[in-house]
Amino acid sequence: MTIAKAINESLRTSLETDPKVLVMGEDVGKLGGVFRVTDGLQKDFGEERVIDTPLAESGIIGTAIGLALRGYRPVAEIQFDGFVFPAYDQIVTQLAKMHARALGKVKLPVVIRIPYGGGIGAVEHHSESPEALFAHVPGLKVVSPATPSDAYWMMRQAIECDDPVIFFEPKRRYWDKGEVDTAAVPAPLHRARVVREGTDLTLAAYGPMVKTCLEAAAVAEEEGRSLEVVDLRSMSPIDFDTLQASVEKTRRLVVVHEAPVFLGTGAEIAARITERCFYHLEAPVLRVGGFHAPYPPARLEEDYLPNLDRVLDSVDRALAF
Fold first, then answer.
1. Which of 217, 218, 219, 187 is nearest to 205 (CA)?
2. Known catalytic residues?
3. Whole-model pTM?
4. Helix (H) or strand (E) holding 88
5. Residues 229-265 pLDDT 10s
6. For the segment 30-41, what is each residue's pLDDT rounded down to a tens digit?
7. What is the DSSP string of 97-114?
């Protein structure tokens, strides 16, 4: 399946198995979503289960919170990453805090789907990576799949979770294909995975950058360097145990994400791994990411986004210590 098809199949399975699951968002029904991720769901499950909402993100999330309070499991789509901010207040002041506010008596099983990242030739508000803003908020779980298999299973797990989950979908990878075993036993939602073994340096990434890191490891192998690639899968919580075990073996770490490096997820990872692995590290933890600037016009995005050369340049810097 493609990643887009895997998410569609995951939503379909969840709708079939649990009558309390709802899908809602702008154009998710008749159109099937701007990326066709929800294609065919409204036709098969009806307008009361797959709901075309008004163009009002705050209203979408506010309604999802109310539905969750009444026992439903809404899956709300934000059409593009940059459109989430009208709903930011609902997410961080209501959705993230209701469980603690109610002393654990209230659960809010809400999934918020957000296609994110660049690489599709779109303008600002359509190509951003705001995951660190949500990972910083206690009470939210934040994840991003890098493969069709993870897209299928992580969505299933997110819908079944009693806590709110922000599900970032790497939009430029929607059409990447891979095997999906719908009868498998999935890994825990927030566990990182070593997707390529190596001995000289660890590359850690999530979502769209995992593929880039795997490509960098393949090129490095031709140059006689062995790079381990860790797919973090989750930005909150982060599986530091898996990452620590990798770094203790390779003694070097480069963290890669599309979001700006400044105060990005990589900053927290660098600080934690430095604390945990200080006596194992043979080089400082390096970070590769976007620049601390608004997302550029489409003709400049290839220069803005982390690419193979920028990842390999940081590998060279780390190995030079």
1. 217
2. 126
3. 0.96
4. helix 88-89
5. 999 999 999 999 999 999 999 999 999 999 999 999 9
6. 999 999 999 999
7. THHHHTTT------EEEE
Please check whether residue 210 is in contact with residue 149, taking contact to mean a CB–CB distance below 8 angstroms: no
Specify the 3-state DSSP secondary structure of 252: coil
Q: Which of 212, 200, 232 is nearest to 309 (CA)?
A: 212
Q: Can you tell me whether residue 236 is helix, strand or coil?
A: strand
Inter-residue contact 125 to 83 (CB < 8 Å): yes
**What percent of the chain has a predicted confidence (pLDDT) above 70?**
100
- Using CA atoms, how far apart are residues 8 and 26, in angstroms rounded to an integer? 16
Q: Taking the CB of residue 156, how many other CB atoms lie within 10 A of it?
A: 19
Question: CA dist 49 to 42, 52, 73, 152, Å?
Answer: 7, 10, 11, 20
pLDDT in tens, 108-143: 999 999 999 999 999 889 999 999 999 999 999 999
Q: Does residue 223 sit in helix, strand or coil?
A: coil
d(CA 181, CA 197): 23
Q: What is the structure's pLDDT at 124? A: 85
Token output for 287: 């970070």
What distance in Å separates the CA atoms of residue 315 and residue 313, rounded to the nearest whole number?
A: 5
How far apart are alpha carbons 151 and 217 in whole angstroms? 23
Residue owning tokens 């898996």? 242
Pairwise CA distance, residues 191 & 178, whole Å: 20
- Pair 227, 216: CB distance under 8 Å: yes
* pLDDT of the residue at 175: 97
CB within 8 Å of 31: residues ≥ 6 apart: none
User: Taking 90 as the threshold, does the pLDDT of residue 166 lie above it?
Assistant: yes
Instruction: Give the chain's length.
Output: 321
Note the pLDDT tens digit of each residue in 2-20: 999 999 999 999 999 999 9
